[in-house]
Design goal:
mainly alpha
Length: about 190
Amino acid sequence: MDREREKILVAKAQKNIEAFDELYDYYLPKIFGYILNRVGHRQEAEDLTSQTFAKVLANLSRYEERGVSFSAWVYRIATNVIIDNARKKKEYSMDPEIIKERVAGTRTASPEEQVCLLETGEEMRYCLDQLKEDYQNVLTLKFFEELDNREIAKILDCRPSAVAVKVHRALKALKKEFEVMKNQQDELYVNF
């Protein structure tokens, strides 16, 4: 959706909530995908997406562009909903013990099949979950949502140059987490 169309729809929706439908239809899959990439659980992502759009609707009348596009504003709300949810939960979707249980609990699978089980999105999810919250946000927005640094900067309320630095540092931290996880897996397979 181009920015001008978005501005027109937002202005209409601020006066008549029924005009919000097109914005909702456009942003729902994007926001759901973003949240799902962050939390890793479909039901939780659905709940958080609902909370996000409830907040968008509740605050729509107060939205003013002021250099932040509607898109960035919606993603910022979604990011805050994710952070609030994580603070409430204070747990990770995966931990090393769960990975070990899954491998050890797959008695009928060959060692090759067990390796394949770990070389899925679960590894990425686990490693991403180990990072600091701002690294998780910037990597998800950059690589899963495919936003550019300017858009990410507006969502995270920082400069584009700061986004570039965060992406670099986050990728470095993610690589380190993969190495730690691989070392844990190697130890597990040696003892298997």
